[in-house]
Amino acid sequence: MPRKKTTKTTAAKKTPKKSLDGVEYIDGQYKPDLEKKHEISQDIEELLGNNRNPFGTNSIESLESKMEGMNLRQIQEMAVTANIYPSGNKTTLKNKIRKEFKAKFGTHDGGKRYVSTSEAPVIQDEKLAAEVLKILNEK
User: Fold this and answer.
1) What is the pLDDT of residue 42?
2) How far lies 49's CA from each of 26, 41, 42, 79, 133, in Å?
3) pLDDT at residue 75 above 90?
4) Domain for residue 43, yes or no?
5) For residue 125, what pLDDT is reported?
6) d(C-alpha 81, C-alpha 96), whole Å
7) How many domains does the chain have?
């Protein structure tokens, strides 16, 4: 007589559910307290952000003369510090750097252009801003 094929059934192990009380997770619902935390972190990043000139100059003429004496490797390093992808030959890199410089410091005298409200100072009170900078410089 042929044997019948039988399959074994195994019972699934039950694991106790863990509490998610202290865990923050994304579920697609609007939570105003999380948005406040995000805004505070953005303000701190703006205060602590390093707003330096990656080109090393404030006028287009001095940038041009500076790039004349550079080789390809030095121009690539300048492009990387200015957050420009360093691809292409010497001429295309110079054009990319000029374009980025004009976008950030496009005035004739090299002064900074404020084109949006996000570039306005975070702290409007000059005394408070001086105190914050003093605290940050001491660390």
Assistant:
1) 65
2) 28, 12, 10, 20, 12
3) yes
4) no
5) 78
6) 13
7) 1
